[in-house]
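Quick one:
INPUT:
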């Protein structure tokens, strides 16, 4: 292990050599382009900071000194015209450079990460990458897209990793995503520190396979990926468990030459949010010209060549290091992609654009007449002017992409969602499977092509799941587990009359009015309407009874009209009898208003019409009874009641008593009339179409008044039941009132305890029973005599029965 650590701390990363070549290629294009900086040649210095702050400061200060002497702030002797600095790859390196360059307002274009917390302190710093916060939100959108709510977090163990966690943890919580664990990657420093960190973390990383999360969100900087690879490589059985690795844009699949023999299978199917890149024309052709002897000033080419091809350019080192001799004709396209790529990577594309940004800004200054004159006269470029032009810069590069900065000096560009497909020979292919567009409408920032995403082979190309527990299916809702994170929950069935129609609903919802929950409680079904119809059996039966009683009443009325001159008809006040029979006929017909779908007219008429008509019937009964009592009292010698006996007294009673009921009904209709209504709640699976009575008080006033009349009629009839009259109706009226009162007492509790069409059926039954009670009790005995015993319907029989009763 110590030999590996030695290599890790001293060897260069071969993949980073492409950044240098991207700069060389860009400067070469600019110098050969007659439309950019004509008669001006750009040059560059490339300095290596070795990931060390000390070397970073030294390299930066050397750029501000003379060509030979290292003396800050003293510019004596020959010196190149420094116009801008491009670097660095890591936040710590970029910040260290910015601290020095900010003093002189020298533009710095960083192509790696940079802390947004320190952004305001460095006004001459420009980021060739978008703000980090956007890609974090993009990752959240990505997790939501695949319904992954249980992930692992791995971050580099430095200030940047801390800032990453501080930014990401609240974002995940706000979007209902939980983390299973947080692991830290040791930052690259010295050999001894790396070795101690690896030994301390090896046990933690060995438990990665035990975590239930299948998705790992990893934040790191370029030097940390080899360290993570080493940790995973030394962990037992790590290859047995496939995971989805989501990595940030600052990582490249760079590696060291010692990792060429390692299996990269663990990262197969990884997803990264990379800064949008493109392929400038001619770049690959340029790479094919690279050889160890291609340029004298390239101090990196020999080390790169030996690392990339595992050979030695020095014959003396061949036997010492057991390497073959480099021919110098090796081809870069044969190097595994994990070490070097022929396609321009995202960071290289940033370097390429940075060089062009400086060139275009400088060109804008150069073509300005006043500045151009000063520059030709030997004057120095004012960095402040270059900053002004950089802030407002916008140009199209050779790949066709637009390059410009926002007000914070950050590149206005999105991210490519890249799928990394690895192969056993340590090569890989990058496939763009989506894009994060920062200027898209809210909710449409992330676009993905799911079908072309390749997952780790352990998933057998089935969409991976990464949740704390299985989803709650429709019909169930999430129930939080005590002591667990909110992503871990039990699934409880929905309560009665509530549904959940989506996966993982927090709470079941009540169906809208007019709908009910199905048996599985995962769907709302439209309720059927319910009303007493003419077509259903119950409605047909009631219609048959109503019509039958109406016909019977009509027949009785016809019989009484036919035999109107007979003693039994004359003795019972023909006018009141006709009124009573007609009112009973109308009462039977009124019951038909209660059947069928409620309408405005039927709702207005059915209670009020029956209330008035039946009140006329009760008034007729009372008038008949009072007439009998008055007639008997008039037979006594010296009675003054004789003048009250006659037809007018009965009609007056009917009109006066019915008028009171009519006034009550008019008040009811004018203040709060009945109307068609829908009862959504009484029945769980039916909508009851009913007539809402409007004012319950007025409804019971109508019923109460009829009950009052029936009670008075009962008392008067009961008093008159023993009067000496052969055709005295008092007994029959008493029985009819008992029937009505019995029906009324049964009606109220039954009416209040039933709903829907059965409540309407109770009303109809009460109407039919009450009316039939009057018809049967009062007229059935008379019809018996008129039809079956006509001999009893004679004046002699009347006198004989009256005398018998009188002498008895």
């Amino acid at each position: 292990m110590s030999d590996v650590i030695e290599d890790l701390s001293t060897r260069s990363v071969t993949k980073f050599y492409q950044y240098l070549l991207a700069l060389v290629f860009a400067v070469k294009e600019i110098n050969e382009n007659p439309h950019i900086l004509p008669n001006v040649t750009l040059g560059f210095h490339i300095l290596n900071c070795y990931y060390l702050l000390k070397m970073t400061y030294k390299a930066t200060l050397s750029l501000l000194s003379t060509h030979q002497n290292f003396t800050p702030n003293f510019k004596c002797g020959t010196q190149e015209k420094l116009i801008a600095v491009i670097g660095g790859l890591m936040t710590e390196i970029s910040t260290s450079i910015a601290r020095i360059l900010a003093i002189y307002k020298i533009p710095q274009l960083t192509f790696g990460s940079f802390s947004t917390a320190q952004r305001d302190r460095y006004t001459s710093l420009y980021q060739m990458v978008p703000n980090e916060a956007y890609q974090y939100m993009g990752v959240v959108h990505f997790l939501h897209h695949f319904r992954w709510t249980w992930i692992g977090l791995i971050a580099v163990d430095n200030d940047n990793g801390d800032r990453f966690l501080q930014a990401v943890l609240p974002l995940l919580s706000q979007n209902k995503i939980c983390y299973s664990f947080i692991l830290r990657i040791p930052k690259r420093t010295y050999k001894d520190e790396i070795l101690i960190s690896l030994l301390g973390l090896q046990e933690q990383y060995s438990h990665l396979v035990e975590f239930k999360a299948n998705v790992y969100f990893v934040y790191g900087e370029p030097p940390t990926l080899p360290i993570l690879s080493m940790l995973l490589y030394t962990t037992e059985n790590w290859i047995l468990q496939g995971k989805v690795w989501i990595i940030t844009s600052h990582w490249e699949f760079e590696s060291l030459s010692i990792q060429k023999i390692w299996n990269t299978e663990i990262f197969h199917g990884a997803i990264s949010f990379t800064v949008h890149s493109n392929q400038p024309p001619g770049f690959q052709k340029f790479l094919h010209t690279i050889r160890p002897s291609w340029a004298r000033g390239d101090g990196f080419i020999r080390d790169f060549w030996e690392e990339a091809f595992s050979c030695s350019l020095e014959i003396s080192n061949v036997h010492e290091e057991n390497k073959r001799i480099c021919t110098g004709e090796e081809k870069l396209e044969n190097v595994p992609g994990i070490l070097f790529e022929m396609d321009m990577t995202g960071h290289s594309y940033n370097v390429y654009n940075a060089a062009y940004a400086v060139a275009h800004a400088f060109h804008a200054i150069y073509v300005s007449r006043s500045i151009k004159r000063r520059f030709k006269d030997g004057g120095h470029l004012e960095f402040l002017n270059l900053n002004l032009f950089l802030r407002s810069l916008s140009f199209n590069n050779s790949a066709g992409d637009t390059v410009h900065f926002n007000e914070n000096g950050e590149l206005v560009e999105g991210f490519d969602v890249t799928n990394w497909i690895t192969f056993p020979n340590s090569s890989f292919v990058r496939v763009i499977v989506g894009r994060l567009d920062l200027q898209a409408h809210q909710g449409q920032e992330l676009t993905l092509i799911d079908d072309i995403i390749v997952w780790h082979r352990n998933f057998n190309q089935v969409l991976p799941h990464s949740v704390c527990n299985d989803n709650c299916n429709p019909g169930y809702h999430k129930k939080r587990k005590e002591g667990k994170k909110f992503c871990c929950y039990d699934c409880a069935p929905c309560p009665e009359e509530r549904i959940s129609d989506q996966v993982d609903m927090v709470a079941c919802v009540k169906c809208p009015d007019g709908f009910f929950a199905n048996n599985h409680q995962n769907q709302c079904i439209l309720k059927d309407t319910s009303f007493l119809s003419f077509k259903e059996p119950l409605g047909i039966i009631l219609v048959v009874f109503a019509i039958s009683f109406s016909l019977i009443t009509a027949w009785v009325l016809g019989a009484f009209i036919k035999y109107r001159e007979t003693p039994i008809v004359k003795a019972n006040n023909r006018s009141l009898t006709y009124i009573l029979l007609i009112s009973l006929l109308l009462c039977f017909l009124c019951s038909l208003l209660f059947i069928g779908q409620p309408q405005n007219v039927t709702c207005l008429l059915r209670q009020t019409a029956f209330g008035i008509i039946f009140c006329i019937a009760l008034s007729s009964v009372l008038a008949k009874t009072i007439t009998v009592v008055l007639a008997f009292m008039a037979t006594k010698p010296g009675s003054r009641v004789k003048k009250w006996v006659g037809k007018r007294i009965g009609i007056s009673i009917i009109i006066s008593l019915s008028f009171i009921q009519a006034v009550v009904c008019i008040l009811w209709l004018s203040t709060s009339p009945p109307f068609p209504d829908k009862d959504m709640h009484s029945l769980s699976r039916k909508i009851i179409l009913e007539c809402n009575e409007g004012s319950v008080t007025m409804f019971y006033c109508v019923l109460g008044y009829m009950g009052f009349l029936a009670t008075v009629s009962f008392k008067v009839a009961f008093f008159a039941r023993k009067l000496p009259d052969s055709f005295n109706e008092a007994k029959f009226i008493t029985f009819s009132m008992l029937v009505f009162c019995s029906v009324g007492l049964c009606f109220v509790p039954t009416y209040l305890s039933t709903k829907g069409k059965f409540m309407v059926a109770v009303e109809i039954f009460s109407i039919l029973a009450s009316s039939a009670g009057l018809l049967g009790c009062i007229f059935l005995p008379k019809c018996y005599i008129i039809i079956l015993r006509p001999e009893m319907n004679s004046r002699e029989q009347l006198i004989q029965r009256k005398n018998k009763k009188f002498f008895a």
